Amino acid sequence: MIGVVPERPYVVASAAQSVDGYLDDRAEARLVLSGEADLDRVDGVRAGCDAILVGAHTVRRDDPRLLVRSPERRQARVAAGLPPNPAKVVLTRSGDLDPGAAFFTAGSAARLVYAAGGSAEELRTRLGSAATVVDVGDDPGDGLADLPAVLADLHRRGVRRLLVEGGRRVLTGFLTAGLVDEFHLVVAPFFVGDPHAPRLVGPGDFPHGADDRMRLVEVRQVGDVVLARYLLAAADDYWLRQAIDLSRACPPTESAYAVGAVVVDDTGHEIATGYSRETGPREHAEEVALSRVDPADPRLASATMYSSLEPCSARASHPVPCADLIIRAGIRRVVLAWREPPLFVDCHGVERLRDAGVEVVERPELAGPAREVNAHLFD
Ligand SMILES: NC(=O)c1ccc[n+]([C@@H]2O[C@H](COP(=O)([O-])OP(=O)(O)OC[C@H]3O[C@@H](n4cnc5c(N)ncnc54)[C@H](OP(=O)(O)O)[C@@H]3O)[C@@H](O)[C@H]2O)c1
Description:
Number of helices: 12
Helix content: 25-40%
InterPro entries: CMP_dCMP_dom, Cytidine_deaminase-like, DHFR-like_dom_sf, RibDG_C, Riboflavin_Biosynth_HTPR
Distance between the termini: 16 Å
GO molecular function, one term: 5-amino-6-(5-phosphoribosylamino)uracil reductase activity
CATH architecture of the largest domain: 3-Layer(aba) Sandwich
Number of domains: 2
Radius of gyration: 23 Å
Strand content: 15-25%
Domain CMP/dCMP-type deaminase: 234-360
CATH superfamily of the largest domain: Dihydrofolate Reductase, subunit A
Shape: elongated
CATH topology of the largest domain: Dihydrofolate Reductase, subunit A
Strand order of the largest sheet: 5-4-3-2-6-1-7-9-8
Family: In the C-terminal section; belongs to the HTP reductase family.
Bound molecules: NADP nicotinamide-adenine-dinucleotide phosphate
Mean pLDDT: 94
Number of strands: 14
């Protein structure tokens, strides 16, 4: 069985830039890009994550505390059974980190240092109990810590939602590796105009070029800055893998497919899940998931239905096929892995959805694992 479970957290990258695309200037003092209102917004985003990750140069230059500022948000985390602050994570190859930095001294959050290039041992000695130093192995290409391995290790430690706060090299690394699900970009209303100041990202091969645009899901004015929130292709892959993984839980039968479905809002939060025959012998995955959502839930209008198999357009056991249930629920976007083969019925779910104006995204790269769960039907 091919492993398809996303063994990484959902990754939100966040940055603020000047209108001419700079993250900072070269002055001694830290450049203030956001106002109070936006800092409070970021505080809310931090509070909703399990960990916050930065590059070592940001720790050296900005000395950030990386804590949730609002006492109410910290209390809400504690009430939900979480530590008051997300864990702090830093990446380094040089090992040049000062144990007196606020990263290590401010707050009681767990602190993780991912050390590449043979710096782990010296750092362990020097940082002592101030942090857990992890060596996940170096990427053979650039000798930096292998980012998928960093994410897999964070996942093993229970991190399900990670906030990547920069700086330039870290953002470039995560974005070019296709490891960002959601990108929050703030534009501040001024110019830096210094070609030697750090830009938002460096050169690289980004998964989203002009022909493969990110999905803009929100634009918001926050004080005098503008927030643009984008969803990236990685997010579709992330949730579709969850749907395929769910399909493995279906009670087996020779007369129907095993399918998993996940309904996700546009902030990367799960609304509901379902799998075939989960609550009754004839139920379909999408039907189970939708039965768990309040039809008046305002998130549905911008939600996506992820299904390991094409939603059905006709079924003997139920008057309303899943494609119609999705349309009736007001869901405007469906992502699926595998078109239904004509084994039991002739399915036209994709056409039915598209005729109703629903955007349908097919990810044939994941059809193999979705089919593999159903291999017994084709023996
Ligand atoms: N406006 C914003 O939203 C924002 C947010 C954050 C930062 N910033 C600004 O961004 C600038 C810093 O950006 P930057 O590109 O110079 O530095 P950075 O991305 O913060 O840190 C780069 C450093 O992180 C370490 N690193 C990155 N990827 C790694 C990997 N895969 N494995 C191991 N180590 C890795 C290396 O540390 P070593 O050098 O120790 O080997 C590398 O030199 C600062 O001016 C800061 O103020 C702006």
